[in-house]
Amino acid sequence: MTYLDYNATSPLCEASKRAAEQALAVGGNASSVHRRGRAARALIEDAREQVAALAGAEPAEVVFTSGATEAAALALWGAMEAAADAGKRLTRLFVSAIEHPSILANARRLTERFAGLRLELIPVRADGVADLDALRTLLREGKGRALIALMAANNETGVIQPVGEAAMLAAEAGALLLCDAVQAAGRMPLPRADYVTLSAHKMGGPQGAGALILKTGAPYVPVIAGGGQERGLRAGTENLPGIAGFGAAAAAAAGETADPRWRDRFEADLKKNVPDVRIFGCDSPRLCNTSFFALPKIAAETALMALDLDGVMLSSGSACSSGKVKRSHVLAAMGVSDDVAECALRASFGWSSGEADVEAAVTAITNLVTRLGRRVAA
What we know:
By secondary structure, this protein is an alpha/beta fold.
């Protein structure tokens, strides 16, 4: 079997598996003062240091969550509530048109909850990069404090976004900045922002663990109240094995060097065998592991099923609902036509990928195109 869907979930790496198993054996609650409780607390704090090191943050800035979706919700809602309590109410949300649904959906909910809050999408260029000239104009228009959401790298195209420049614009305008760094973690240096979201299972850790990197001084009111865990910033008994596995995966990822060889080999061989393949974002800086492409006139749903039968697992890069593959909102924002967007597939490589995976994927795709009568190079 050939698994090339790391951007959806990475298989558990060995270091993370061992750490999670050791945490399961501890069997204590990190809030308890007895020896098992203290042992559990030590594992959590070790993981906090490991995640902080990966993110270039201080351990005290790491708030463990159930995943990046929760982290995004905590950041957005916590920032809104804190700003209102401080008398510096946020009135504008600027969210890139290619953000993950965990950001977009919560941003839309906020506009329903807070009267007078306006959501505006930051457009992207045809190359998949957010248009910061448009953001600059948006910031200058209107009044009121703003929150900007811009991901570090897109989960579908892999295109790296100009978060550093956006941070400078935010600072000039007195705005707050939220960065979804889920796909970037372990694949590139992570940017600093007021709020950064991470997920363990994208980097070889377990599902059900994530973190909000809450920059010191950033406005925040706890959204989940309860027993006071995570220094009162996110209540709920900590997921000890998940957090321990997250820390180990972060430490392993921090020691890796970005290597695009399998992605580049895959794309080169694919273009050789299928000359009319279209690769999205290839003219922009991209994550080293991500290839988003379209096989013209072959619907993604058809291709995914056929490839799966051949033992090759890719994704459409689009949100799936009730078993239906929907058109990518990312490609829509890039101006890609419907007939091309519905053919989009994503291959994403990771820690266990190798030459055999590239060869198997290219062979299966080439055979698929041949079977469906597409033109294939000799």
